[in-house]
Amino acid sequence: MNPQTLSARLERVAALVPAGARLADIGSDHAYLPVALMHRGAITFAVAGELALTPFHAAERTVYDNQLGERISVRHADGLAAIQPQDQISAISLCGMGGETIRDILDSGKAHLSGLERLILQPNGGEQPLRQWLMDHNYRILHEDALRENRFDYEIIVADRTGPVRYSPEELYFGPLQLQARTPAFLLKWQRRLRLKQKTLAQFARSRQGVAQEKAQGVAREVGWIMALLGEGD
Ligand SMILES: C[S@@+](CC[C@H](N)C(=O)[O-])C[C@H]1O[C@@H](n2cnc3c(N)ncnc32)[C@H](O)[C@@H]1O
Question: Is 55 near ligand 1, meaning CB less than 6 Å away?
């Protein structure tokens, strides 16, 4: 991958960044996303934030090699601390991290959010706690996507802070819009997940040490939801 050829995953994210955005890409690694978007004329300014030094230097190198130093500011910072008020950021992307990590970055960086930024989130797992955070903080989910690349399932969640919103436990688990759209990628993901969860339940049943009842009940509830989604066990 390079700024000319993004992965299918980042290409989907790129398509969801509003035209002309001032983007903060947090956890930018090589800064491929903001550099690709800038080359395409799709954004007007970007911050590439990175916590770890090696990817921070990689981001600096990509921006320098592409002669974009005046329009992409690479910053060594923890989460949303990379964003300054004068940046007038209108969109934030947080991609390729666990959903819990993205949630923690949003939560600990709340002071850096104006509430006007569109969030474009691409969690690798942990979508449920991330959606819970969005709901708890008045973000409405505007778009969701599921895709598979290199044998990994990915989700993309786009949200705006619009005011109070309520999602049911199943909507938080599967994604409110994915539940409606039921795309092939989404259904295939949950078919695979169902097999894994059923295996886990069978292991719990065989376990000699015994598994905490609450944990087993939680997995059994999820299996029930997934079977209902897929129309199995009717
Ligand atoms: C797996 S990479 C994903 C890179 C790129 N966003 C993508 O989707 O291809 C995750 C990056 O997030 C960075 N990261 C993790 N926690 C962070 C934080 N609190 N603040 C900034 N960057 C963070 C890591 O150092 C790593 O480079």
Answer: yes
